[in-house]
Design goal:
single chain, alpha/beta, Nucleotidyltransferase, domain 5, 2 domains, seven-stranded mixed sheet, five-stranded mixed sheet, 15 helices, globular, binds 5'-O-[(R)-(carboxyoxy)(hydroxy)phosphoryl]adenosine, binds zinc ion
């Protein structure tokens, strides 16, 4: 039986032997709550970038509901891919490869994109390329840098670069190099919540909308950012002890922790008896499904605005201090910041001014490429296309897929 299966299995496998012709990649991204497809040429020219957001679906729950995310991806995937291909002015036959996010992310959500991409690749006889979502976020910046370099003959970002990938699911630092392909050394991570998760949870507990980042971003300039002092516990790498699941990886140099500040905000609202105002705001905003962050401003008193501004300042400062320290420690020649939280205006201003003081080039993605999208997946796939680094027919979702190698093991190879 297994022999039969294997025979059948082998007979349908694709052998993508034809060399890349036009560098056209169709990227597909379904790792969380955005169904996205894009067509990118040569990792630097975006021909289309289509994103179907599920915010309206998850908003009533104040967070992503995995089961609903999978169903929404299933509903959206065909129209989104069709739009991406049409907007690019190509046909599916023109693409050289199909790239898809294989992890990390929600298992059911990833599987929708992977199944669809596999079927498409198989039916078209095109190679399939698996992309790590975190590598995609880094390539959102590299894609736009490459486009700028091509258009205006600017120098590309000097390497190695220290990359902060900061989103709803991740807060990671990578030292990025280019040798034989792109290489990533993981030198920092969060031990609990991601920074974006803290934005989302704090917004939720203050009765604001979902996802919380853009709401806090919009309201923070109206408050006093030094009104509420927050402090972060300094986490030191604990030495690995055999069988100790709580031990931190000693190879990672920088640790972030954002669950404490969320609890501190909650405590502040309790101590200052802010629950009546929070409930009134939550009810008013729930009554208006089209509510935008600007609609929340008249619903916030100065104490709430000060709390929001202080929370944002504390998170941005913690990210800034640790990222610049890591850049110095590892001799990075530039910085790049990517992921949904990289859309934050205060973060951009404060990182940019410190980078200018230090004479360190810094790059962010455009706002459209900061949050999840498929152009970044197609861009990250391009070096794999040229290296013929294709996914096996057995590709499946890896919800906790890691990127790169940790510092200790990397020391010999990077
Ligand atoms: O990269 P992304 O779209 O998805 C993940 O890979 O997680 O990031 C979404 C996260 C959410 O937590 C959202 O609140 C946060 O990015 N975010 C922001 C802003 N825009 C999105 N956080 C702070 N300020 C923003 N302007
Ligand atoms: Zn993401």
């Amino acid at each position: 039986m297994s022999g039969l299966f294997f025979h059948y299995y082998r007979s349908v496998s694709i052998s993508p032997e034809s060399p890349p012709r036009s560098g056209l990649i169709l990227g597909i991204e379904t790792s969380c709550d955005e169904t996205a497809a894009a067509v990118v040429r040569d990792g630097s020219e975006t021909l289309s970038n289509v994103v179907a957001s599920q915010i309206a679906t998850h908003s009533p729950y104040g967070g992503v509901v995995p089961e609903l995310a999978s169903r929404e991806h299933m509903r959206n995937i065909v129209p989104v891919v069709r739009s991406a291909v049409q907007e690019a002015g190509i046909t599916l036959a023109d693409v050289d490869a199909i790239a898809v996010t294989s992890g990390p992310g929600l298992a059911g959500a990833l599987l929708v994109g992977i199944s669809y991409a596999k079927s498409l690749a198989w039916a078209l006889g095109k190679p399939l390329i698996a992309v790590n979502h975190l590598e995609g976020h880094i390539h959102a910046v590299l894609l736009e840098q490459a486009a700028l370099a091509r258009e205006s003959e600017l120098d590309p970002l000097p390497l190695p670069a220290m990359a902060l990938v900061v989103s709803g699911g991740h807060t990671h630092l990578y030292l990025v190099r280019h040798g034989k392909g792109w290489r990533y050394r993981n030198v920092g991570r969060t031990v609990d919540d991601a920074a974006g998760e803290a934005f989302d949870k704090v917004a939720k507990l203050l009765g604001l909308g979902y996802p919380g980042g853009p709401w806090i971003d919009a309201l923070a300039p109206h408050g006093n950012a030094v009104a509420v002092p927050f402090s972060f516990s300094q986490i030191k790498s604990k030495v690995h002890r055999r069988g100790d699941p709580g031990a931190l990886d000693p190879a990672i140099e920088t640790f972030f922790s954002f669950s404490g500040i969320k609890t501190a905000v909650l405590r502040y609202t309790q101590v200052h008896e802010m629950s009546t105002g929070i409930e009134a705001r939550r009810t008013a905003l729930h009554a208006n499904p089209a509510a935008k962050p600007a609609d929340a401003l008249p619903l916030c008193d100065s104490q709430t605005l000060d709390l929001i501004a202080s929370f944002q300042r504390a998170v941005v400062d913690d990210l800034r201090r640790k990222t610049f320290r890591a850049a110095e420690q590892f001799g990075a020649a530039s910085l790049l910041v990517s992921g949904g939280v990289a859309a934050n205006r205060e973060l951009r201003v404060r990182f940019t001014s410190e980078a200018a003081e230090r004479g360190l080039p810094i790059a962010f993605p455009s706002l459209a490429l900061s949050t999840d999208n498929a152009a970044m997946i197609a861009a990250a796939a391009y070096p794999k296309l040229t290296a013929a680094d294709f996914a096996p027919d057995t590709l499946t979702a890896d919800p906790s897929l890691a990127l790169g190698i940790a510092a200790a093991r990397a020391a010999e190879t990077l």
